[in-house]
Each structure stands twice: as C-alpha cells, then as structure tokens.
Amino acid sequence: MPTPEIRTKDAPPAGRSAGVRIGVWGFALPLLCLALWYLVTGLKLVPPLLVPSPTATFRRLVGLFLHEHLTSDIGATAWRWGCGYILGCLIGVPFGLFIGNSRKVYAASYPTLDFFRSLPVTALFPLFLLLFGIGDSAKIAMAFSAALFVVILNCAYGALQAKETRLRAARVFGASEWQVFRWVVFFEALPQTLSGMRTSLSLCLVVVIVSEMFIGTQLGLGQRVFDAYTVNDTEKLYAVLVLIGLLGYLINRGFVWAETRIVFWTGK
Amino acid sequence: MSDRPLYIEIEHASKAFGEGQKRNVVLRDFSLDVRKGEFLTFFGPNGCGKTTLLNVIVGVESLDEGSVKMNGGTSRPRVGYVFQDYRGYLMPWLTVAENIAFPLRIRGVSKPERMSKVEAVVARFQFRIDLGAYTYALSGGQAQLTSILRALILDPDILIMDEPFSALDYQTNLSLYEKVLQIWEATGVTILLVSHDIDEAIYLGERTVFLTKRPASVAAVLESKLPAQKELTQMGSEAFASMKKQALEIFRREALEKSA
C-alpha cells in the first residue's frame, strides 16, 4: 500500500523555526546579552564612548521621547516605510501571482526579476535622487523598489508551486482559468506570498533608515542615527539603534502572529 | 443488465503521447460498451494507461483514432471525479462543507444554497461527517468521503473513481465499499472504478474489465457471479473464489506471461 499521508513540501510555518516552538527560551539569549552588556560596561572593559552602559542608553531613550520629539521621527520613518511597503505589495502581489500562474511567463521574466532583485537598492541612490529629488518621494521610491522585487519573486514562486492535483481537481469540476486562479492558485501561493511580504517588511525598514542617513531629512530615525554619529553622541546612537531594533522586531512578530492565523493550514 | 440502455460506447480508441523516438502509445484499439447505471471496475498493471482512458471518457483528453460516444451522442453527461490522493485534491483552506460545495461554487451558486445542498447530500446518504472541520484535521477515510460527496454534489450521471481506496487502510476500505454501493443503488449513477486490488475490483464491479499492459486494450471482461445485493461476507463465498481464480488466470496470462 502507498503511504496514506501525502504532505506538501511547505516552508516551515511562520512563528516556528523548523518546527521548534520558540516560547520562553527565546528570552534567555536576549537576557544574557543584556547581562553581558551590563558586565562589560560596569567593569569598564570598554570606554563608554564606544559602548555606553545600558542604563545610560535607556535613560537617553526616554529622554529622547520626552525632550527631543522622537515620536515625530518615528512617525516620519513609519510614513516612508508604510508608503513604500504598501505600494510595493499592492503592485507586487498581483504582478507576482500573474507571473507564477504560467510557467512560460515565469521562465521569461525570472532572469530579469532576479537581476533587479540582486541589484542593491542602496547602490541606486544617485539614480533615485536624480529621478525623485531629495524629498520623501525618493525614500519612498527606494523602499518601494526594495519591497517590490522580493514580493514579486515570492508570489511568483508560490503560484508556480501550486499543487498540480488541486488545479486538476478544480478543472475537472469545470472551473475556468480565472476561477482556478482565484480559488486555487491564490490560496496555494498565499503562504509564500506572506513570507515574501514579511521579508520585505524588514528590508523596507533597512532601506528607509539608510536612505534617511544618506539622503538626509528633517525628521527620521536614520537622520537621528547619523546626527548622533557626527557629534560622537554614542548614548544617543545606541538609544536610537535599540529603538529601531525593537520596532523592527515587534512589527515582525505582529506580522507572524497574523500570518499563522491567515494561512492556518500550512504544515498541518 | 442488457435491459439498460447503452451509455458509453468506446470504439477502436487509440491515443499516443510524444513524437518520434519518444512516441508512447497509451491506448491501442480500445473498444468497450458501458450500460447506463452499470458499476464497472477496471483492473490492470501499473501505468497501463488507466488514467488516460478515464481522461478520454470525461473528455479532458482527445483521441488520435476511434471514438467515444456518450448517451448516443445526444448530451454531455455530468461527471463526478474521485481521486486516489484525496489530500492533494482537497483544498486545505476550506472546510469540509466548502470542499463538498466547490463544484457548486464554480457554477456560481450562492453560499446559503450551497450549504443547504451540502446538508441535503449528507443527509441523503446518512453520512456522519463534521462539515465545519478543515480537511487536514480529518482521517483518511473521512477525507476520501469528503471527495466522494464533492463528486456527488452535482448529481452526476457518471462517477469516476481513480483508485479511490489505494491510500487507505483495509478497515476503512470495507466501510467505504458499503457506502459506494449504497450510493450506487440509491442514485443509479454509472460508476467507473479503477482498482489496484483484485478482490476490490471483482467484489464491487458488476463487470470487471481487465486491461493489458501499455498500450492498454481490453484483455478480458469478467461478469460478476455475486448476488445483486452485496454483502462483505460474499468475499468468502465459493462464487467469489471461482471469480478470483478466473481473474488471476487472466492476469497471469496478460501481465506475467506476455512480458516473459
């Protein structure tokens, strides 16, 4: 008899790494790092100009919120991040699914897409500056292009991997190609689509921060990092870095939380 | 049986895939008549072209030579399909009820109407199945039952079952045999069932068609000697034993000796 259980080769479900529940153990290493940070700075093993103490860093972070309008910087960064990301997904998802829906279209467009994906967006600063000037639009456009190709490639791959059997099931019951696409390919691609959207969410933040640092702006977390660096204010530098890290982490966790509920059937 | 009208007439059907060196003849001069409401089983060696034959019958695949006539060529029958790999053919993101209703959804039936039809079909055959469950949570037997109900939801004229029981355990199979026979008796649907299991093929079928190795043609047709009212205990009867002996002879002649 053949094996009764037929499993798909899906990526590990979101929120777990290769089937391992993270749980409380996930807190152990961050706590250890924090302890090490205290130890290194407490024992003055490194000069405070290079690594300020955690206490000083967190006090500075609170100070940035209270006296230096850090919320406005967060707002400005979030605006660029959100605009670029959402635009990238709105265009990338349908486009990617369309490409992956046909093997021929996929084969024809893969090398081009892979080329653009491999091109570091940050290396295109001059081009974006020429095209969009030094305002928000250049930064949004960079975040957009960073998200776009990752989303397209993931969606296309997800659609391409749609189980042949499910497509056939829909076809023998008389589904049109559009119905097959809407009711089978879309859902078959959804886990990979969301995985691409999650990857590009983090990537977009990186690109926005870097673009703020290099193009320059009035408000923005990247500008704050750059300002702190130019005046050797390492406490501020660390405070903003910790904030960016936490921000990225929390948004990612939120995404994973939603993802496991949307594609509840994966890995089952 | 001969009082039932002819329903499917396959005449001298031939089909090949590929060109030149890679040309692969799958069906050669295949002829078979099926009567309306008949329960026909197919038994043959692996990869002999059974799936192609089924695809030709439902019209998914066209023939190179010969013809398939349905219902005297008057109308296209509605076909319900049950596959072996039930997990691969069910949609894991849909509930059991929505999986069963999938063919209705394709036809633009509204959700309330779909759900009432699903409840009606489940009630009609007195199946016990959790309509709100997702298919990944079902046992193999329940998942295959979901596929069978999905195939029945359009009230088909022909029910095609492509090795529906091959991936399930023996106990589940026995209970599904009874359900399939019950469906057949209640609806009068024409059933074409491909099987890998000789007992299953001769127990279920009114006739069992033995296929040759690829390219497939009809090696022999075995008429059932079992009573019309089937019971599982008949698998131990003398009539069953003599049919099985005949079947094994046919199979040895076709599959073993001809390859020697």
Folded structure, characterized:
- The complex is a heterodimer of chains A (268) and B (260).
- Chain A is mainly α.
- Chain A has helices spanning 28-42, 54-67, 70-100, 103-118, 125-132, 136-160, 164-172, 177-215, 221-230, 234-262; strands at residues 16-17, 20-21.
- In chain A, strands 1-2 form a two-stranded antiparallel ribbon.
- In chain A, a hairpin with a 2-residue loop joins strand 1 and strand 2.
- The radius of gyration of chain A is 22 Å and the shape is globular.
- In chain A, 37% of the residues are buried.
- Chain B has 260 residues and is an alpha/beta fold.
- Chain B is 37% helix and 23% strand.
- Chain B has nine helices and nine strands.
- Chain B has a six-stranded mixed sheet, sandwiched between helices. Chain B has a three-stranded antiparallel sheet with strand order 2-1-4, covered by helices on one side.
- In chain B, helix 7 links the parallel strand 6 and strand 7.
- Classes of the chains: A mainly alpha (268), B alpha/beta (260).
- The interface between A and B is medium-sized, with 28 and 28 residues.
SSE topology sketch:
The complex is a heterodimer of chains A (268) and B (260).
Chain A: E1 16-17, E2 20-21, H1 28-42, H2 54-67, H3 70-100, H4 103-118, H5 125-132, H6 136-160, H7 164-172, H8 177-215, H9 221-230, H10 234-262
Antiparallel strand pairs in A: 1-2
Helix pairs in contact in A: 2-10, 3-6, 3-8, 4-6, 5-6, 6-8, 7-8, 8-9, 8-10, 9-10
Chain B: E1 6-17, E2 24-35, E3 39-43, H1 50-58, E4 65-70, E5 79-82, H2 86-89, H3 96-100, H4 102-106, H5 111-124, H6 140-152, E6 158-162, H7 170-187, E7 190-195, H8 198-204, E8 207-211, E9 218-223, H9 238-257
Parallel strand pairs in B: 3-7, 3-8, 5-6, 6-7
Antiparallel strand pairs in B: 1-2, 1-4, 8-9
